[in-house]
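input
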Amino acid sequence: MVQSGRLPDGGRVFRPGEPGYDSTRPVSNQRYAGVLPHAVAACRGAGDIAAAVAWARDRDLPFALRSGGHSYAGYSSTTGLLIDLSRLNDISVDPAADEVTVGTGVTQAELHQALRPYGRTFPSGRCPTVALGGLVLGGGIGFASRKFGLACDSLVRTDLVTAGGEVLTCSAERHNDLFWACRGGAGGSFGVNTSFTLRTQAATPVTLFELDWPLRDARFVLAAVQEITRDAPDEFGIRADVETSGSCPEEAAERASVRAIGQFLGSRRELERLLAPVLTPSAGRRCRIRECDYWEAVESFGEQPPVFEFAVRSRMVTGSLPAEAVDILVTEITRWPGSQNEDGACAALFALGGAVGRVAPDATAFVHRDAAFILALETNWTAADPMPVSQAGLDWLDRLYAQLAPYTADAAYQNFPDPQLKNWRTAYYGSNYDRLAAVKRTYDPANVFKFEQSIDCGQAKS
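output
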């Protein structure tokens, strides 16, 4: 059926030059836009997926899964068979159980739109076009994580197509080992997740904030932000950045600044009390705080991922980032070599803690429960930038990553996949990796589902 271009559930296979070949969701990171598939299997159901996987497996043809196309490392791209899951986009809300069941291709924007009439929400990230498949399987962080946990913590059950074409429903009661792996073990290693049933939460009013300071205040601001977050109630979520942009180092140095954005599930008065240490008259050069309903907050902070071409490296901050590390950030952000991409470069602290930290590290595959922040380092460029420019940005990123090693944990966020990582098994999964490998041996012993950083059947290597 794949050979004829038709799939069992009504999906189609498209080859280069055929109508439909270009209709799949494009990759977010244009660094991998030139990786073009031999064919695209546009799937509509589990039967389509099973047929596509079998066809690729029998021909020893590489394949990749794509729900939203936001893999930072390009793992949803291939020169073989691209299995496009974007058409698995059904949404079913169960108001009696406060649950929603979504196809793996449903985007965060589509989910919020479906939940809004019921006054419910889900702890998602900021990017509206990210699909639920990628978000949930690798953890899933957002401004509501400290209150409601990670996206994977809300997973009630998931359906998965195995390498042999069997459809398994995984939950705490059935195939609980595979269910455990699907909560933080990232996607694409054990099978194809087709749907997720998620616990929802009441959508309560929100107070949003956006604060900016000149770069010279970085040491004071980041120290205060970390202290505030450590003692804050779960309702508080924040991201703090040291950032810049510009076409050359001189412009980057001039534009560098410090920024904090976030939300509080409570009143403006309560938030201002929390933020008092950084709201002194001499501190911020811009301060915007406003109360709104939950849906305004989602729309206000909805942000596309970096545009054009980019690279991200991450580390975990388990205690706090000391002043010496902040000084390194300040120095290096002014040395960013520049590019034509207005997204520039940044070092971002994403707050964890709260509900995230009250889950045991081995309760799910997401092991980073003791982290206070995820530190993400990013450089951006465009296809119009010559190779020396993009390479200079990558060299800058690697230098900054190495300089921060003494002040951070040797761990990384699996939803920010980093192709540079040599120790990715332990960096992403820590002590949970061997258990993930055991799940792999049970459900995919032939290693049909594989890519550069997929779970394999062996034990963790340093």
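quick obs: The chain has a mean pLDDT of 94.
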